[in-house]
Amino acid sequence: MGGIGMEERKVRPLLRLSAVFIAVVALAPPAVADPVDPIPGNGVFVVGADVAPGLYHTGGSGSAFGVWINNVPTQDSMCSWFTYSTPDAAKDHVLQTNTSVGPMFANINTGVKAFESRNCQDWRRVP
Questions:
Q1: How far is CA 74 from the centre of its chain?
Q2: Is the peptide bond before 87 cis (omega within 30 degrees of 0)?
Q3: CB neighbours of 60 closer than 8 A, spacing ≥ 6?
Q4: I want to staple 123 with a disulfide (CB 3.0 to 4.6 A). Which of 37, 39, 94, 97 is the partner?
Q5: What is the mean pLDDT of residues 104-122?
Q6: What are the C-alpha distances in Å from 5 to residues 12, 15, 17, 48?
Q7: What is the pTM of this model?
Q8: How far apart are the C-alpha atoms of 16 and 47, rounded to whole Å?
């Protein structure tokens, strides 16, 4: 019977150590990257993880020169942005979009899950 008591003593300290370890892990803050600001002019960004919600402004097209055909700029000469209701930026979940050669604003509100920018200058958050 003396052997049973020794086994119980060995198990109890391990259980106490596990409980302390679990409490420490539960209190640790989650690792979160800081949102980028300014937002680069090309790419898809997840709202919350990559970019913060807010109103953003760009100077317009990121092209070094514009190509116009019949007084209309080509797609490669223009800046385009899209907001999506899903973080995977699925084309059938576009909330808003705009295209221009000049300056634009994009409202990335809390309902937006992803933001895409194509051929734009950097996007800066409006204070």
A1: 29
A2: no
A3: 79, 100, 101, 102, 103, 104, 120, 121
A4: 39
A5: 96
A6: 11, 16, 19, 54
A7: 0.67
A8: 41
Contact residues for 95 (Cβ-Cβ < 8 A; gap 6+): 83, 84, 85, 111, 112
Burial of 4 (0-12, 13-18, 19+ CB in 10 A): exposed
- List, in sequence order, every residue forming a beta bridge with 58; answer none if it has no partner: 104, 123
pLDDT tens for 15-57 read: 454 444 444 444 444 445 567 779 999 999 999 999 999 999 9
φ and ψ at 54, to 5 degrees? 155, -175
Instruction: Indicate the SS3 state at residue 37.
Output: coil
- Cβ-in-10-Å burial (0-12, 13-18, 19+) of 91 comes to exposed
SS3 label, residue 72: strand
Length of the chain as a residue count: 127
Interatomic CA distance for residues 17 and 100, integer angstroms: 61
Question: Is the distance from CB of 51 to CB of 108 less than 8 angstroms?
Answer: yes
Task: Say how far apart CA 113 and CA 108 lie, in whole Å.
Answer: 9
Report yes or no: 83 and 96 within 8 Å, Cβ to Cβ: yes
